[in-house]
Design goal:
With about 170 residues, the protein is an alpha/beta fold. It is built from 6 helices and 5 strands; from the N terminus they run βββαβαβαααα.
Length: about 170
């Protein structure tokens, strides 16, 4: 299974593509779609759309795992991220991907085994699990790889399979 993990944003969209087979990971690709501050917001959304199309065509994933949005104290930020996330989900949908959503708590639990783990703990564990020399930068990229790991662990479980098939 080829999993595209996404950490959504409008300035930086982290992505990571992993192959997961027989409880082993192989890193295929990772990076970030970036948009410049000061760029009109509609253009930023367009650049995210174009970047997603390129990632999907290049890597041909089977599924996309994306972070569920949660409301923080800045309503404008969450609305803007939600719009960017909508563009990302739409591109995945147009590509015919299964789309899975996970909370930060679920990702931390899956990667570290503790839902209240610190961001650095998640990133270090992700680096170890994927046998990388260093934690990918920007942080959004590492978070996207952790999202893909979370999906691999969730989809391989009995609960994950039952959830997938609506049971």
């Amino acid at each position: 299974m080829i999993i595209l993990g996404i950490d959504p944003g409008y300035a930086i969209v982290g992505y990571g593509v992993l192959e997961y087979s027989n409880n082993h990971f192989r890193v295929i690709d990772y990076g970030a779609i970036t948009t410049e501050a000061g760029t009109p917001f509609n253009r930023r959304l367009e650049l995210i759309s174009i970047g997603m199309q390129e990632i999907l065509i290049k890597n041909k994933p089977d599924v996309m795992a994306i972070e569920k949005l949660f409301y923080n104290t800045n309503a404008k930020t969450v609305i803007d991220v939600a719009q960017a996330r909508g563009v990302i989900v739409l591109e995945a949908q147009k590509f015919g991907l299964e789309i899975a959503e996970y909370t930060p708590l679920q990702v931390k639990q899956s990667v570290v085994g503790y839902g209240r783990a610190e961001k650095k703990q998640v990133q270090e564990m992700m680096r170890i699990m994927l046998k990388l020399d260093k934690i990918p930068k920007p942080d959004d990229t590492a978070d996207a790889l952790a999202m893909a790991i979370c999906h691999a662990h969730s989809s391989g479980s009995l609960a994950g399979r039952l959830k997938k098939y609506g049971k």
